[in-house]
Amino acid sequence: MMRALQFLWVFMKKVTVLGLGSMGVTLAQLFIKKARKVTVWNRTRQKTLPLVDQGAAAAATAAEAVGDSPLVVMCVYDYAAVNDILAMPGFAQAMAGKTLVQLTTGSPADATESAQWAARHGVAYLEGAIQAAPSQMGEDNTPVLISGSEAAFKLHKQVLSDLAGNFVFLGSKMEAASTMDLATLSYVYGGFVGFMQGALIAEAEGLDISQFGKIVADISPSFGSFFAHEGKVIQSKDFTITESPLRISVEATQRIHAFAQARGLNTEFSALAAGLLKRAQQAGLENKELAALIQVLRK
Ligand SMILES: NC(=O)c1ccc[n+]([C@@H]2O[C@H](COP(=O)([O-])OP(=O)(O)OC[C@H]3O[C@@H](n4cnc5c(N)ncnc54)[C@H](OP(=O)(O)O)[C@@H]3O)[C@@H](O)[C@H]2O)c1
């Protein structure tokens, strides 16, 4: 029993971090802070030096860095970099029987390809999407989406929680995390283009744009809850009005568009938003919940 516990303790202490850009350095430092035995590797060796001063071991090659760590976390620029590392001499052999947590951002197709590489080489694989900046890592609410081997996730969850308190496991479909990352980015950029339109509107009236930003920050938590509700509505397929009738948004988007037109502002976004809501109204959805807009978008 003691031996088994001792083995588990040693097992949970060792971790390797590959890639020491601004995110990779942060990940390595968080592991060091939790007294893990951390081995690091980076293409440009010099970047390992500050981490060695903080207690990490630096390896000369990626294959050597994998060493006897049961858990390897990779975080490099993109999948071209990932593929370069996967193809390095001895790397696949060194990884056999271990877990690779891929925290490099990529597309669902990238995730599938890497997972296939892992399956071919007997590597347990987890694909993650970090949804925070380096300075936000290590907090109880830091979100990281993750998918892949559930057994590997359960085995390493405690060590991984050094990096983020909110790992959201999305199931064994390898590309789930990168697909959900795309979905959330779509929301972020949609919101950002709307924010730009809002900045033009405030500017046209000589209002303080920084105050506009602050107001948006203040209303964001309640709108986040509203979007969570609309997501449930779409999943339930029941568009009976529960929070916000679609007709209200038809009028709101028409007002935004009319103001932009009247003031000679850019109307690309306002035309898109007003046009989509108008089509939903014409499709007879005005007395449904706002989320019914998806029925127009699906066509
Ligand atoms: N930083 C963020 O705010 C943030 C937030 C969420 C997600 N992410 C994701 O985290 C990943 C890393 O981001 P980062 O900010 O740390 O990037 P970064 O500071 O630009 O660092 C890039 C890293 O990739 C390595 N690299 C690039 N090409 C390589 C190659 N061909 N072979 C081996 N290594 C290579 C670099 O090595 P060298 O030092 O040798 O150049 C460096 O370690 C990205 O996928 C990013 O999308 C970042």
Fill in the keyword field for this structure.
about 300 residues; alpha/beta; Rossmann fold; N-(1-d-carboxylethyl)-l-norvaline Dehydrogenase, domain 2; eight-stranded mixed β-sheet; 13 helices; about 10% strand; elongated; binds NADP nicotinamide-adenine-dinucleotide phosphate
Can you offer a commentary on this structure?
With 299 residues, the chain is of the alpha/beta class. The chain folds into two domains: 171 residues, Rossmann fold; 90 residues, N-(1-d-carboxylethyl)-l-norvaline Dehydrogenase, domain 2. It is built from 13 helices and eight strands. The protein has an eight-stranded mixed beta sheet, with helices on both faces. Helix 7 links the parallel strand 5 and strand 6. Helix 11 runs antiparallel to helix 12. The chain starts with a helix and ends with a helix. The mean pLDDT is 96. The site of NADP nicotinamide-adenine-dinucleotide phosphate has 22 residues, from helix 2 and helix 5.
Number of strands: 8
Highest-level CATH class of the largest domain:
Alpha Beta
* Number of individual domains: 2
Globular, elongated, flat, extended or rod-shaped: what is the shape?
A: elongated
Radius of gyration over alpha carbons? 24 Å
Q: Structural class of the secondary structure composition?
A: alpha/beta
In terms of quaternary structure, the protein is single chain
Helix tally equals: 13
- Distance from N terminus to C terminus (CA atoms, Å) equals 61 Å
Strand content: 5-15%
Q: What is the helix/strand order? A: HEHEHEHEHHEHEEHEHHHHH
Low-confidence stretches: none
Main β sheet profile: 8 strands, mixed
Mean pLDDT: 96
Q: Give the cofactors and ligands.
A: NADP nicotinamide-adenine-dinucleotide phosphate
Widest beta sheet: strand line-up:
3-2-1-4-5-6-7-8
- Known CATH architecture of the largest domain: 3-Layer(aba) Sandwich
Task: Name the helicity range.
Answer: 40-55%
The fourth-level CATH homologous superfamily of the largest domain is NAD(P)-binding Rossmann-like Domain
CATH fold node name of the largest domain:
Rossmann fold
